[in-house]
Fold:
Amino acid sequence: MTTTTIKSHYWAGLYKFVDFAIAEKHYRGPRPKFVCIEPENLAPLPRDAFDDDELLTPLKLPLFTGCKNRVHVWQPGGYLVQSHIYWGFLICFLTGMRPGEVGQLKCTDVRTDGELYYFDRRPFDARNGRIAVKDLRNLKTNAAGRVIPIHPLLIELGLLGRMQDLMDLRRGAALSRMEHLYPQGRAALGLEDTPGRSSSH
Structure:
């Protein structure tokens, strides 16, 4: 177990428990400070980053350069199919979002300040007032709630058009899943159980 895991998860949980006990007057002593790290604990590895060649390699695949048809997107051909998997990978590449985050994106998460477009991943917008706990967005961590700029290339490729098409489909057919920008994306990227496959991240 790394020292980062101990500090960010275990110590954080212990501090929350102690603070609760103090607030409820179950513990009246001084707030403890957790500092113990065993020499056997592992040092964290530095975060790796893709170099230019690694980033360009997947973008040279048929999905992005021309594929056989809408089913065989990994085979070379003369068609550009802007399917859920096409948008899912591009959003991951150009925003740094995790596949699981992309799979949760809703059309209403695409916002603009009048000049730039962004994905609003905050649990809720405080400017619109309070909301019920059941309506809060389910996030992996507190840091996952954030505003993410949308790369201009995504806009040029037609992301806003996709959003509008999905919203129109939802209105016309009452399909609740069409509220998601990427309705088939979680299964397509292996984030949901599908026949013969297990969930993976």
